[in-house]
Each structure stands twice: as structure tokens, then as C-alpha cells.
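Encoded backbone
================
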Amino acid sequence: MKSRDATRSSTRYAAITAGAALTGLLLGPGCSKSEAPAAKPAPTAPATPAAVAPATPKTPEAPKPEAAPPKAPEAAKPEAARVETAKAEAVRAPPAATAEKPAPTASQGGGDDGCSYANAVAKAAGSERTHGCADAEPAKPTQAGKTTHYGAAFALTDTRPLTTVVADVTANEGKTVRVSGVIAKVCKAKGCWFTLATDDKTGRPVRISMKDHAFFVPTDCEGKKAVVEGLLKSVPLPEAARKHLAEDEGADPAKVQGPTVELTLIATGVDLEG
């Protein structure tokens, strides 16, 4: 029995050995030994996804405000608008034709030297001022009791009757005197001169001319008493000046012929009765 078992074992061993050799030939040297199959990795539990916080929704940006349209200029005030309009029109409009001044008449002296009578008086007084009635700006009179004062205040205190002054012209000419008398004639244009007679109207009248036409008297003051202060002078009057005086008093200048010399008191102040 033992021998039979031994024979079987040998035969089985031989068979196994032969089989292994054959397998080695077929698979090659590297596969002579059977390799155990790689163990499959144990399945792992699926990872629990981490909780993701919901994304905070973005707040939509507010739309940018559109640029405000430029402000319209405020309406100008009515008065200012009128002024600006007038200025603009003045620039655009051609200069308006200015009315030409009428040429002075022969009795007014002609040319641009103003009133010929005023020029004659100014020359006699030693003044260079040469203007006439048209460009004078008379001072306003002042009231003092029953009299009205025109011109500058009196510098002298003594009043002499006109009669005593004209009685001796040589002694009084060129001096400042203060005399009284009655107004005989007056300039009807502006009251820029008048003639002063003696109280009895028998003496020689003296023409009173307002110095530099600084003041005038009323054009209806004939017959009123007056006190006058000023420089007594003999004034040479050309024919043109005499014609001018004739026009002023309402007389006919055509009847005036030639020059003359006239006694004149160039007044700085006059007190007029009433």
C-alpha cells in the first residue's frame, strides 16, 4: 500500500512539475510564477459635499444721474433789460443827426464868440470870459423882508443916490459903488441887464449889466426901486452890440446905427423892491 501511494505521489508530483514547466515556456521567464491578482481597493464612502453658502446676490448699482441741462439765464429785470436793449440799439443804430444851432445874427456878434454885448462888457471889465445869455446859469435869488436879493452879497455899507454918482463920472469911474434908483428898461429875453434912472427920472440913466451873467432879474421889473453894487465903467459898444440890446428890449435893431460909448455899472449884486 505504501508503495502504491508513493507511486501516485510521485506521478502527481511529476505531472505538476511538468505542467509548471510548460506554463513557464508559454508565458516567458517573467511569468514563471503566477502573480496574485491585485487586491481591489475597498470602496470608499462618497464624500459628503461641503455645505456651500448661497452666493449673496449683488445689489444692482443705482443708475448714475444724468447731467442736468445747463440752466437757462435768469430773465433780466424789466428795467435792466430795457437799459441793455437801449445800449445795444445805440451801438447798432447810426448816430442820430444833431440839430444844428442857428447861426448867430449880426446883432449877436456872429461867429462863436457868444453875445456881442456880453463880450463888450467883459472886455471893459478886464475879464476874459466871453459868453452871452444862452449859456448862462443864473444863481437863485434870496428873499430878505420886502426885498429880493440877486447875485453876491453887498460888500459896501453906504448906498448913494444914482444922481450923485453920474454927476461926477470922472471921479467915480473905475470904482466899485453902491447906488439906488428906479428901473427904467429891462432885457425882455432873460433879464440879464436893465437901465437904472434917477428917482425923478430926469438924470442920465446907467445900464446895469450882470457880471459874467451870474444872475438875472425878472423881465417885468420896470418901475421898481433897486439898489445895485458893482464896478462903474464906460463901455465902448460896437454896432452889433447895440443892435443886440435893441432886440432884447423889443426895439427895432435896424434903426441902430454905428458904435457908441455907454456908462455901465457891472453889477455883482442887486436888491430889488418887492
Summary: The first strand starts at residue 142 and ends at 144. The domain at 106-273 is CATH 2.40.50.140 (OB fold (Dihydrolipoamide Acetyltransferase, E2P)). The two ends are 198 Å apart (CA to CA). The first helix runs from residue 2 to 27.
